[in-house]
Amino acid sequence: MSAAHTLGAIAERFGLRLVGGDPALRIDGVATLADANAAQIGFLANPRYRGQLATAGAAAIVVREADAEGNPRPSLIAPDPYVAFARIGALFEKQPAATPGVHPSAVVAPTAHIAAGASVGAFCVVEDGARIDDGAFVGPHCVIGRDCVVGAQSRLVARVTLVQDVRLGRRVLIHPGAVLGADGFGIAFERDHWIKVPQLGGVVVGDDCEIGANTTIDRGALGDTVLEDDVRLDNQIQVAHNVRIGAHSALAGCAAVAGSATIGRYCLIGGGAGIVGHISVADRVTVTAMSLVTHSIHEPGEYSSGTPIQPNRQWRRNAARFKHLDDIARRLGVAEKEKKP
Amino acid sequence: MSAAHTLGAIAERFGLRLVGGDPALRIDGVATLADANAAQIGFLANPRYRGQLATAGAAAIVVREADAEGNPRPSLIAPDPYVAFARIGALFEKQPAATPGVHPSAVVAPTAHIAAGASVGAFCVVEDGARIDDGAFVGPHCVIGRDCVVGAQSRLVARVTLVQDVRLGRRVLIHPGAVLGADGFGIAFERDHWIKVPQLGGVVVGDDCEIGANTTIDRGALGDTVLEDDVRLDNQIQVAHNVRIGAHSALAGCAAVAGSATIGRYCLIGGGAGIVGHISVADRVTVTAMSLVTHSIHEPGEYSSGTPIQPNRQWRRNAARFKHLDDIARRLGVAEKEKKP
Amino acid sequence: MSAAHTLGAIAERFGLRLVGGDPALRIDGVATLADANAAQIGFLANPRYRGQLATAGAAAIVVREADAEGNPRPSLIAPDPYVAFARIGALFEKQPAATPGVHPSAVVAPTAHIAAGASVGAFCVVEDGARIDDGAFVGPHCVIGRDCVVGAQSRLVARVTLVQDVRLGRRVLIHPGAVLGADGFGIAFERDHWIKVPQLGGVVVGDDCEIGANTTIDRGALGDTVLEDDVRLDNQIQVAHNVRIGAHSALAGCAAVAGSATIGRYCLIGGGAGIVGHISVADRVTVTAMSLVTHSIHEPGEYSSGTPIQPNRQWRRNAARFKHLDDIARRLGVAEKEKKP
Hints:
The structure is a homotrimer.
Chain A: E1 5-6, H1 7-13, E2 17-19, E3 26-27, E4 29-30, E5 40-43, E6 60-63, H2 65-68, E7 75-77, H3 81-91, E8 101-102, E9 107-108, E10 113-114, E11 119-120, E12 125-126, E13 131-132, E14 137-138, E15 143-146, E16 149-150, E17 155-156, E18 161-164, E19 166-168, E20 173-174, E21 179-182, E22 187-190, E23 193-196, E24 203-205, E25 210-211, E26 216-218, E27 225-227, E28 232-233, E29 238-239, E30 244-245, E31 250-251, E32 256-257, E33 262-263, E34 268-269, E35 274-275, E36 280-281, E37 285-287, E38 292-293, E39 301-304, E40 310-311, H4 312-322, H5 325-331
Parallel strand pairs in A: 4-5, 5-6, 6-7, 8-11, 9-12, 10-13, 11-14, 12-15, 13-16, 14-17, 15-18, 17-20, 18-21, 19-24, 20-25, 21-26, 24-27, 25-28, 26-29, 27-30, 28-31, 29-32, 30-33, 31-34, 32-35, 33-36, 34-37, 35-38, 37-39
Antiparallel strand pairs in A: 1-3, 2-7, 22-23
């Protein structure tokens, strides 16, 4: 917990208008609208929680202009309360102590370079030719493989594996269990068995990216797998070799992108969605949860596949009929204009 | 392998009726119906394997009353043979040696508290304010982050990461690669880029929960992500921030639950199924494999989405027609009573 | 980078016919058709890149006989350019130094056996009764649990966990974060709560298998989970207890196979596809991405489920109609011959 903040100082710092509260009031945290007490700031970002205003006990509530009137507590008026919450909440994050230096248990190769201001935790392994830049934090149990780069101010929370030839930009945040730079899945079939296709490329991650727990990003076969700046990946995502993800795109948990697919900028890929290999997705495309993108998408917009959830008995009847759908369409004489799914 | 057990002692211990065998016979293990030898106990839990009774060679077979007559071998009669198998099989588990104490290679912060009867393995890192209670087993390569609690008799097999503010109940079992307490996926869009929304909550796991290999459970944004007692999670599951899963619910491999969703008690979520964010699922709901739940479910029962597996040529024809389904329905004059999926 | 290779030596070594180049030319690497420079070999394996031949700058290009005429650069003619690429590329892999011996930081149980020619990396834990055979490479942070076997020439890149009773064949390659031999998901419902079903079996992995990053393969409940020879698993795959996968089958990222399912030989399972438990899939079956196999497949061929991706507005209309599909079929008098999905 950092030093004390007053309501007035918070309003001033983030350019919010304070309506009806005591600027000198000491604030010691943030909380949900339902839970915030008289020393905490609450938030109304999602209109579905508007009903909770009446019983709220917060020191003040961050609201849009339009919601200030319905707020019986003091208001901090923000154009986007969710963004304001992000800013205010950051004041109350417990900052882990990141003492610069290398933990005595770490194993560091002689040809690795660790900046004086970087922090390398217990049981880390830093291999030949790796470089860890100033202000970077490498938590316990990380493996920084050969010729990898951890850019300045980047933070590997714990147990992150950079296998080989992975270059992280600045301020990259990676959560535990993530594996970057493992071999892509390249196999060639020769007569009656598989042979491995060497994976010789690397992974390049731009500035300000975030990579979730247990997410995997494979190295390229030839050339690199690339995340441009400000790409945000949730947990358990799979990014295959030679994928390129454009700046400011965000992928929700368990999404998967197959080899050599290209995703544009400002895309939103829903949880569990799949993108097949060797296709491209335009900028500003949204794919809803668990949809499968099987061909290139050239226009911005929202895309979906799948069928609605139903009680199983009804679903079974309908699903069985799916097998007759072409037959049904033929009986009705529906044209086959677009037969290829 | 623990001390010897006789057929009679096993019958008595678990309240099973022995029909036709020698109570003094030494039993040295359990096996499948097909594989069990004359010193092992076999089981008939799933009726589809009834045909294997004729050739079985087991010392005795655990069966329902109704199957005893068709069993040419001695019977151990149980109301639920699968439950009886669980109990008898546990006698023959190889118990790993869990010597109390801290492995000399572990790195333990001065403010951490490890009970005298707890076991902490090689290369563990235990951070400030963490607490490991009596009888807990923390296997090699675990990270127990700041202010985490490992409850009494809990067992972290190996390489489990508790990032921060994770509180485990008693007798919790966690398999390797699981990550609890990583930041939830909170990002707010500001003009032309993302800013991170601080994740300030924790994870609370009730008594008797089991969490599979490489499963991830994120900490809450504000408030906690909660698993009530006796929740059972398979491998590679993703539980997002502020999810709540009710007591005695079980989720199969690769299921995913998005932020702030609430799942009731005694639910069964199939493999690869998805639950979108901010919805609630009632008690005693079953969701079949790879279904996507896109809205709240208020009634117990079984729910599904998806289409049946078919040979690709037939599937392609039907899938192409899915795009004309609204057109087909209109031609037939089907009412649009329920248009929103 | 290994010693220098000439164009002529490469042609001879892999039985390729060189047309139009200088056999004495020194080659220092491989690259994509677009990127290869005058000292690198390029490839044309996928016809969609044929247009790049005109501007290619490679020392030589590996092509099929039929593409040699359209190649303005020297040709290396191969029956299967992708296989030839795999072979040639392997010459230019950076070979990590695998010095035999055990890193001084590793913790090795007295009853473990490590061959003199094996390499065990920093912070590895090798438990009682484990065996690591000659020429095996066990990278940093691996846990080789009780009674596990790492076969000769196998390579565990880093941070691989073999929990217990896992036996790897020869030349098995496993990427970071993979967990083999964790307990299968066995729970039995007793009155009002779950009890754990002991998992007593192991995992057997044949020769020449590859297992991707963060993939999980559970030990059998009774008997073993088995991968036959030359099985290839991508990242983030879940293989449940007692599954058997036939030789030469390949599974793409995020696929999942539920308990006791059997997959034949030479199968191809697409990314994110699911196979439910207790069914069998014949040899030479292909399942397309994100399809769910809910019943046994007895014939070779390609199988699919799901619906096509569409713009969300159109998809919503069609998806809503899916709920009326049985009604639609009835109105048309379509027979219900095959009602069970």
